[in-house]
Amino acid sequence: MKIALAQINVIIGDFEGNTAKIINYIKQAEQRGADMIVFPELATTGYPPRDFLEFKDFIDKAEESIEQIKNVTQNIAVVIGTPSVNPVIEGKDLYNSVVFLYQGQELYRQHKTLLPTYDIFDEARYFEEATHWQIVQFKGKNIALTVCEDLWNIGNENPLYTINPMEKLMPQQPDLIINVSASPFDYTHAKERIKVLRENVKQYGIPLIYVNHTGAQTDIIFDGGSLAIGANQKVFKELTYFVETMEIVDLEQLQSNQTNAEQAKDKIPLIHDALVLGIKDYFGKIGFKTAVLGLSGGLDSAVTTVLATEALGKDNVRVLLMPSQFSSDHSIKDAKDLAENLGIRYDIVPIQSVFDSYMEQLTPLFEGRGFDVTEENIQARIRGNLLMAISNKFGNILLNTSNKSEMSVGYGTLYGDLAGGLSVIADVYKTEVYDLAKYINRHKEIIPINTITKPPSAELRPGQKDSDSLPDYNILDSILYHYIEGQQGPKEIIALGYDKALVERILKMVNRNEFKRHQTAPVLRVSPKAFGMGRRMPIVAKYLE
Length: 545
Description:
Blueprint: E1 2-7, H1 15-31, E2 36-38, H2 56-70, E3 77-85, E4 94-102, E5 105-111, E6 136-138, E7 141-147, H3 165-169, E8 176-180, H4 189-204, E9 208-211, E10 214-217, E11 220-223, E12 227-229, E13 235-238, E14 245-250, H5 251-256, H6 267-286, E15 291-294, H7 299-312, E16 317-321, H8 329-342, E17 345-348, H9 352-362, H10 373-394, E18 397-400, H11 404-409, E19 422-423, H12 430-440, H13 449-453, H14 473-484, H15 490-494, H16 500-512, H17 514-517
Parallel strand pairs: 1-2, 2-3, 7-8, 8-9, 15-16, 15-18, 16-17, 18-19
Antiparallel strand pairs: 1-14, 3-4, 4-5, 6-7, 9-12, 10-11, 12-13
Helix pairs in contact: 1-2, 6-7, 6-12, 7-8, 7-12, 9-10, 14-16
């Protein structure tokens, strides 16, 4: 039996486009001799559809898609994820289902059992869990159909669920597991995913076909990495990451395979590719083409500019250099050099005269008070207004350049440098931004070396450095990681050897700046715990006070 793995990039709610793409891949697979093609979880709707699932019309259109797909299954079976209506009055109105189609008929519809409600997931809000499990027989093989999380309750010392769907299916003696998935990217997840899938293969002694989405859906990025794993736990096929593609697996070859085709999964290259795809799909799926951002000569704006140029092309990225009286000559030169290296348009718009106008109006109101963060924030907001003026006038979407370290501790100005339609690197710590810059320069110098080596500074007052307000980024990022990704409290972090006063200061900064993060643009998720849907913290709270 030949099985096609179709990891596709769909748009949430684009039923016409999604269905056309699915049918096109079905025809390609049939022409290449496949007996079956497998698509991801909720492939008809896109994932996550969230509250669109509460619209009857949305569900009706998904079912219409299934009816259209049936018409092209005369000679090839199709396994595809889609929502289903729950006919029982009790419980949620929907199931998250995988459908098996063949010869114009629906042979079986298996509902998802394990509904994740952690991090970005909120499936129990919409779906009822399965209570019936049945294998599908096709061309002499017994097939166990599962949906994403259904395979994630194995080999866990602290299981999230009280049931294991595969244990319900094993008495029916399946020969093959098929898992349709919507497994979001983070830089740890690909390795963890293969480990979990291998544990299933080891436990049940049968091969596994796993098909994932690729592409970005606002802040959530799907990396693909679809898999075929033999009963001997060796990876026979691992599809390219961050690319829409289809590969065909011969089941006989899968069962006899003795080599391991697992790909490398290095953190920084993965983050780089994920961010480029995140920008590209955010613009492409909404219908935007051009971006604008402020290029300061600093590291964060430099890395964001390179990523945007890779995603959108040099003709679709425009930058403003907005020096003030506090900007250093080398920062202006670094910004110009980067723009010229990339071949993108840049304009120099000095802000000193605008700042002086603000101060002329405010000086009588500020009488007796010295220069402080107020004047610093005014500069940031002037720059934000100039960038938004370009955005409004020319239709460029403003990209935010704040990193995760700054976003965590509130080292940014609302309606100033925190403005934007998309936060590109706000899930990337400053130390990781340095690693990204070095990766970008791996073949030649694109980002000027001075941008990477000079002490980071917002340049909002004479001689300012980030270290005036923040601890060394190596220390800061480590503490932030333990608190945000590790979800460790102050006592646990201090016990690791960090200074008590520093830990308490940093954690209070994180909590007190929650209100800023609630007002910023969507953050492209690349870590196990990003700001946004996956981290829901109260603004008003007393923890750590």
